[in-house]
Amino acid sequence: xAFQKPPGTQDILPAAAGKWQYVEEKAxxxxxxxxxxxxxxxxxxxxxxxxxxxxxxxxxxxxxxxxFTDRGNRxxxxxxEGTAGTMRAYVENKLYxxxxxxxxxxxGPMFRYERQxxxxxxxxxxxxxxxxxxxxxxxxxEVIALAYTFYQEVGIKGVRVEINSVGTPAIRAAFxxxxxGFLRPKRELLCKDCQSRMxxxxxxxxxxKVDQHHFEGAPSILDSLDDAxxxxxxxxxRSLEGMSIPFSINPRLVRGLDYYTHTAFEFKAExxxxxxxxxxxxxxxxxxxxxxxxxQPGVGLAIGLERTVMLMQEQEEELAxxxxxxxxxxxxxxxxEQHASGVLYAxxxxxxxxxxxxxxxxxxxxxxxxxxLQASFTAILGEDELAKGEIVLKTMxxxxxxxxxxxxxxxxxxxxxxxxxxxEV
Length: 425
Ligand code: ATP
Ligand code: MG
Hints:
Elements: H1 14-34, E1 37-38, E2 44-46, H2 47-54, H3 59-64, E3 66-69, E4 75-78, H4 83-92, E5 102-111, E6 123-132, H5 137-154, E7 160-165, H6 169-183, H7 192-200, H8 227-242, E8 248-249, E9 261-272, E10 275-283, H9 287-290, E11 298-304, H10 305-311, H11 316-323, E12 327-331, H12 334-349, E13 354-356, H13 363-372, E14 377-381, H14 383-388, E15 390-395, E16 401-405, H15 409-424
Helix pairs in contact: 1-5, 2-4, 5-8
The protein binds adenosine-5'-triphosphate and magnesium ion.
């Protein structure tokens, strides 16, 4: 029996990889513009890092981690998210000792043992940023702005930004009791998950995907905020307004992870079955200390790339253009075939994309390949031309043909290419 990929994983085939590359390039370029620098951490970490960094009562730690014992008897976990590893590296490498705050980003695979559905996988990819060392509300707004701009620039329409403040741990503790007072009479109406969340982590009940209709009239955490929290939240909103980023306040937004303080936010869009959240994050002022580092505040966000790619619709044309081949070389006859590799290699060294036939096919079949690859030019090398050190170059868009010296082929293609590119603008 042939092998199949494990459930919840995907092969990103060449036809789709262009979209992924485009998204990743956008992410990197945005980070350059916002001055975030890449941090690459291991795909696996000590299990305890996630227990402490993500939180014992979260769905992730309770039931979604890929955990195993390695041959040295250590408990290892494939990273389910990027923040804990980033914090670990920040502390271990003493990045907090630098004069400027640390503004970091990552792009890579994450692993969660979840039930597969559209937009939910066991191996998926996140683009995330973390800004550590400042509790300025302007930084919360910057993180939100980066994500908002990302969605705009990859061409996802109708993205909504929802923000909330979840206060401080002390405020949440008081709110927890108030919330439980509201939830207790409804306990039997709530789903099994919520009933157990009520015992372990009542705030998370508000995050439930099925029970929202029972929460009408629930107390709002915004009414529990103290002056400092309120002021922080106000300033985040003023900063967002200063950048003309539209947002709405959702007092029930609590996020699945335990470590958030002050600002929590999510990005939502329609179009992926039952799922509407495509990214989210918040401020986590206690987290660095929780994993054994100094008391440094932070704010961050993670964007799911599968969901991003699924919602991108308008880039097809631009992506097709980017995948186009510059030159397809057709070699006719034994002599020409022997020379083909050298001519092709010179084009590739000059920075052009170039391909040839490796199946000794007839001219007609080779020209069909050039078509399929959307080659901008075909270069036809016959025995006569070869004897004169020349090659026939055809511009596919116009059908124009010219004979050029072999030694000048790359330069001529480059020149023509620039002209047609200008023509397209
Ligand atoms: P959800 O509510 O959909 O389970 P989450 O709260 O677990 O999401 P986060 O941990 O905040 O998600 O991760 C941030 C983003 O990563 C999500 O908004 C989503 O785009 C993406 N993501 C999370 N889990 C998965 C998954 N299993 N498959 C694909 N993308 C995911
Ligand atoms: Mg989840």
